[in-house]
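Appendix B. Raw example, untouched.
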Amino acid sequence: MFAALLLSFAVIFIAELGDKSQLMAMMFALRYRWWVVLTAILAATTAVHVLSVAIGHYLGAALPTHLLGLIAGAMFVLFGLWTLRGDSLTDEEASRAQRATAPAFFVVTSAFMLAELGDKTMLATITLAADNDWLGVWIGSTLGMVAADGLAIIVGAVAGKHLPERLIQIGAAALFGLFGVYLLLENLFPALPVAVLAAVTAAILLVVAAVLRGLPERWRPAVLRPRPVVDAAPEPPTLVPDVATAAERPRQESNLRPRD
């Protein structure tokens, strides 16, 4: 159970980095007390992951172990691509976080439950529960999500800084790709030594990274596109008033008088 707990904690923590749930946690932390937001996230995550673990547990009991490994590997690769694509709040979710007037605990709990249904963290929990101890997955996945969203609350509300989203997004996608490709190779070629599997996995990820890097800019994921260079606005010209000296003023005034 302890191994499943640690694995689930790490996977869900990585999955949650840069996710829309972190954005919601930051927005709610600016409106409500941090401990109310964190408690509500814990309640919502506990409820959603009970459902996820139940689905994964009964799904795992009905499928052979070899097939489960292939499904898990494919799902992790999918999570990596999902993470690389990025995630953002919809207008409805942003409005829910900004203009909520109901009691704070109820608002945050309901918002997070709706946001997590069908999200990649829920799918990752189902995948983990299909091949690991269900209790360890439930505890680890819940703690992993609460830890990631707690980090968002601290950074957004206390430190007043933003997470380096590009770096975190690319790193999380790479880790998911690493897990997924390794699981696929391990189940497709079970006789290969671990060192060979690790080397082939790393080589595949490097090739994929090179291919993505070589794509035309419009075809790349947004996180891999170069940031637009914003030119500084030109400074307005300084207007120097034409102030005549005291000696020049009588001459200027005489020139303006009509001649006889």
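End of appendix B.
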